[in-house]
Amino acid sequence: MGRKLLLEHINVPGINTFEVYRKKGGYAAVEKALTTLSPDAIVEEVKKSGLRGRGGAGFPTGMKWSFLAKPEGVARYLVCNADESEPGTFKDRYLMTHIPHLLIEGMIVSSFALGAHASYIYVRGEMMPQIRILERAIAEAKNAGFLGKNILGTGYDLELYVQPGGGAYICGEETALLESLEGKRGNPRIKPPFPAIAGLYGCPTVVNNVESIAAVVPIINDGGEEYAKIGLGRSTGTKLISAGGNLKNPGVYEIELGLSCEEFLYSDEYCGGIANGKRLKAVVAGGSSVPILPANLFLKTINNEPRLMSYESLSDGGFATGTMLGSGGFIAFDEDQCIVRNTWNFARFYHHESCGQCSPCREGTGWMEKVLHRLENGHGKMSDMDLLVDVSKKIEGNTICPLGDAAAWPVASAIRHFRDEFEWHVTNASEAVTRNYGLAHYADPLTKAEAV
Amino acid sequence: MKVTIDGISIDVEPGTSILNAARQIGGDIVPPAMCYYSKLAGSGGKCRTCLVKVSKGSEKDPRPMPKLVASCRTTVMDGMEVQNITSPEVIEARKGVVEMLLINHPLDCPICDQAGECDLQNLGFEHGSAKTRYEFDRRTFERIDIGDKIQLHMTRCILCYRCVFTADQITDHRIHGILNRGDHSEISTYIQAAVDNDFSGNVIDVCPVGALTDKTFRFKNRVWFTKPVEAHRDCDHEKCNGKVTLWYKGEDVLRVTARKDVYGEVEEFICNTCRFDKKKTSDWVIEGPRKIANWSVQSANHYQTLHPLPVLKTNPALIEANKEQFERETRL
After folding, report:
1. Cα dihedral sign for A207, A208, A209, A213?
2. How far apart are the CA of A135 and the nearest CA of chain B, in angstroms?
3. By the CB < 8 Å criterion, does A168 face chain B?
4. Which 8-state DSSP code applies to residue B104?
5. A355 reaches B (C-beta below 8 A)
6. ipTM > 0.90 (yes/no)
7. Fold observed for domain B2-96
8. Cβ of B182 and A355 within 8 Å?
9. Domains of chain A and any CATH numbers
10. pLDDT tens digits for A280-297?
11. Nearest neighbour of B100 by CB, restricted to A351, A394, A397
């Protein structure tokens, strides 16, 4: 049984209310931080913990905080990125629904550490129930004196605001989020300047994922060094994984980083294996934008070592044979799923969500979607696979924000690993619209390193 | 600050962008720019045609930048080394960007008014491929009139946002913007309201393609048959100084535009009265012919550069000399 830091009390009835949360030891981190620690000491503690951003990029949170510019007389802001809209990821929503006070507590501690007196939680527009839950939680915390003027008599003031977005995926990109928060069209800004220098309203701003902010609470409670003991190597602490797809027990799991992929997938404590006695075909390990892996490469790295759920192990092998931990949106596909159809579905999503600001992403995502749609529906050509790889290469790295990369990686990786399935869709076009390719050799043990 | 672009060094002011440093050097090494407009604050970074490779970040931190950067929005650092046309990676990426810009562009140059002075046409000619790999329907829109003088044809738009910045910065209130997102986003006024402003005509000049066109000039003539002449008048609008280019066909002024430099950017914005209402020679003080870059198709038929073949002579030595002379002249 792995240690639970965030979801320890998730099954306590009424944990979403202030009284129960407080009784279970909640808001101890606020008391400890505001009365005994200085802001710099908190940043130092978070640095020591080795906490890495849980939103997808995995950038060390303590480092991000220490980059924040601190000019005199300019307000600083903390913005919580709760615009969770990556297909396959639903951990933040789960956290906000069931244990909203954990996020509020983390926001207070983090805002204190950064010297922010107004902080925002930018919630995706579709999550209306969560917005109400958070607003209620904020009112409760304010009532108890943990928010507002002179918190706990320390003289520290903090106002917390919940801002609903319009529901665009692009607003999960931090600069687009800030634009949207300012009331403008949610287009990503051109960096530099980074938000740490000029963010919200031109002031220094830190944007953190919900889970990163929530993880600050156990770090302050137990100390950064204690937190760093959990996990493996540079992947410290616990991570929420939202497991979906053809699993026996889909849901949100808190794992210690470094858990083996096989255990996560097949043990009854976690996903419990593939539903209906089917076999595993492919896995998207960290939300739709990370490269998809066939079953054999997911369970074992190319060097035949067992793959672990950690930032390093999942990216072992680079883009050729690895993937990324991303935001923890774990999607498993059984042998009845069509990879071409799934890739088309992802491409359709990115086509729909591209903001249209820079040309490679605006035009390229639509192009890839159309070619994949043609392939899936039996009108494809053998040259389409090379075309898709070429288009994805033209998008990747040439765009303002990472959405271009996110759109290119799943397509490029699906063709890299499942090329025979794509080819089968061309050679057996009429058959491909009636039945699926099946498991084929995608779960066979790895024999030798794939030529890249 | 010293910056080296494709091996050519130049000293520039701190805060200059790579693109502007390259423009100070001039010549082949200037990256093309479709969305950047030096007169409009905040423009640039969107079209990605000006991508360059920074092979050395600065004297202090010589690490190269991991990705290609948009030269129009990246400021130079002391000792920076930039590769533009000397980097195959940049050329490849630029080719990709041009392809992306063209896949939804109608390529109706023969019936487009912008042909001959179109930035995208020049860009496509230089970096595009002869054939498209795109086999699907291109997105199309209905033509709409924004005001009685300007027509918007979104089908040709490459979403450079220049006109949006113009509306924000040159005119006194915002008149139009972008609706929707992704490849179905469009430039529009809210519920097709007319654009009514003294400076609204400048959106025609800043448009790099034929999406925003002058309704008083549409289908009147091809641009390379007209003769550009510099002229000025005493404009009573306080923000307009009346310096324009008149485009003549014979005795008639077919249209009036602001004066555009070699990068297709206007020198000064002009008011709508100058642009749309003053189309008689008597309204203007003529200064002289407008110089057009030699490579531009607009100068076709205006300059005699090729001499006709010399009269054929039977002397073999003279034939050889004639050949040499002809080759030398046609090479230029």
Report:
1. negative
2. 30
3. yes
4. T
5. yes
6. no
7. Ubiquitin-like (UB roll) (3.10.20)
8. yes
9. 18-229 (3.40.50.11540), 232-334 (3.10.20.600), 339-432 (1.20.1440.230)
10. 999 999 999 999 999 999
11. A394
